[in-house]
Amino acid sequence: MLATLMQALDTTIANVALPDMQGALSATQDQAAWVLTSYIVAAAILTPVTGWLAGRLGRRRLLIVAVSGFTAASLLCGIATGIGQMVLFRILQGVFGASLVPISQSLLLDAFPREKHGAAMAMWGMGIMVGPILGPPLGGYLTQYYSWHWVFLINLPVGILALVGIAASVKPEAPHRRPLDGTGLALLALGIGGLQLFLDRGQSQDWFGSLEIQVEAAFAFLALYLYGLWWWNRRDRALLDLGLLGNRNFAVGCVLIFVVGIVLFATLALLPPYLSALMHYPVLTIGLVLAPRGVGTMFAMMLVGRMLGRVDARIPILAGMGLIVYSLYGMAGFGTEASVQAVVWLGVAQGVGLGLVFVPISTVAYSTLPPWQRTEAASIFSLVRNIGSSVGISIVFTLLARAGQVNHAEIGARIPAYGAEQTLVPALWNPATATGAALLDGELLRQSAAIGYANDFWLMTVLTLCAMPLVLLMHSGRHGPAPGPGMAAEAH
């Protein structure tokens, strides 16, 4: 859980400190954006290799190498003196961090009997879900009261403690050596790397109006298509076994975790700028207002961990998705004014919903898979969730930017000329004066942005509603079949 928390925290904690880093490292805004992009892309490319590395090194050794490397890379990020160094060390963080989530998840599933998988996933899930939620407020606090360096240096005690725990509790296992599928690795690296760059940089580069984005999209589509053909022709030796998606529970779990990734990270990305730009909240206040969401997630995970095995796992998943729909519907009605109570209450409701959803999905998705497939399955599961987060953030910010432009033009065209209908416009906003025109334009921008935020929350509401019927396709998770000796022989 500590290893997972450390990796999950770093997906969002650096966002708040980015302006300070940009000034301290003498970087342009585009260069500073690579501090976030490089980490995401490196982690995405290396995630599919986790299964092969675990077989080659053994999961215990791989986990120790990954935690040690991630902690050392965090130290290097904290003492970086230039933007080039920072991007390089963030790539190293992504390389070592890619294995942390799937390896820790598969180890936990093997460490506990099947009837305790729900409780184990609840504890582990606190790291993966609460980490991104706590990232922005913790990053804001450290940046404001200390410096941006501590956004990375805070990983040192966590990493050291995790290493001590792993060395003391995780048992070594014999590696299962298999040849590296170099062609498959190259195709997946090009495809996933191109897809992540396409999603992360699309909005800033004007999407398909940019040659860079066109090239990244072409590489992503072609490489992933070729990997599909490559896997089909050599299924038993391919780097990543796409045949796992033939398992109904696992396939539906991947679709649902994709939606959860969109909602979790897109909402986290939207609320801070909304509260800052439209509500004028300071950074620390934003962190305090959003923090109860993480408390709701932890409470729900502890609750659902005790429920699983006793109730049909689909019940908490549907209840959680219902709470997510309720919270997103409420956020779509924020407009230009939202009370602190509404922001906190809807955040708690969404946090509880995400907690109720994540643990059962993570448990049921693996319930019908034999143990030897869990590490590779966890790699696909983590990759799908990460791609979901990238897709969600790209879509909502693209729609927000374009809605702002369209709404500004539409509303502006309907403002009457100052004169005969001047009672419709406050005297202070007289467009005939420079000050009045500036104030009027500022209000137009504010109202246009509010409509854009509402549209984004509406879109996520509809997406979650559309995904709810898929839950009924899953096995309940109470009586997952245990693997038989035939399966064990097949693994060898």
UniProtKB/TrEMBL annotation:
Transmembrane segments: 32-55, 62-81, 121-142, 148-170, 211-230, 250-271, 283-305, 317-336, 342-366, 378-400, 457-474
Record GO cellular component, one term: plasma membrane
Annotated ranges, domain Major facilitator superfamily (MFS) profile: 1-479
Primary localization: membrane
Family annotation (PROSITE patterns): MFS
Family matches, as SUPFAM superfamilies: MFS general substrate transporter
PANTHER family assigned: MAJOR FACILITATOR SUPERFAMILY MULTIDRUG TRANSPORTER MFSC (PTHR42718:SF9)
Protein name: EmrB/QacA family drug resistance transporter
Organism for this UniProt entry: Pseudoxanthomonas broegbernensis
Taxonomy of the source species: Bacteria, Pseudomonadati, Pseudomonadota, Gammaproteobacteria, Lysobacterales
